[in-house]
Amino acid sequence: MALPDTQTKTRFVVEFPINASPKILFPYLATASGLSQWFCDDVRYVEGQRLNFIWDQENHYAEISGQRLNRGVRFVFLDELRQSVTDANYLEFTLDSSQVTDEVYLRVIDYSSTHDASEQQEMWEGLVAKLREQVGG
């Protein structure tokens, strides 16, 4: 039986302008093959709406809990037994377009155990730089 996670969780939100259309960006945010190109070492479909995110040879299972085509996706992380947990860590990617400037913004919401905010900012800047390389934006 897993012990309850007693660590404090924070909701870290950051936005990045990306020079690519939502149609081009969305597969990089919502598919295993797209995510594995910039987000982690590998991502594999497990079953149904579940994915296995692999970092440093460690498995992290998540379920797609919400998805809107070319707009956003949310991954809710599961426990070691691949079961849902209360107050689970989640990661959400949302694409917003500015009608005025025609720019596309990627909003990242990272809800997880408390991290140093500047470290988290730096980590996401690095990841989004890799994403920009992939999409040419």
TrEMBL record:
Pfam families, A to Z: START_2
Residue span(s) of domain START-like: 8-136
Protein's UniProt name: START-like domain-containing protein
Gene3D superfamilies in the record: 3.30.530.20
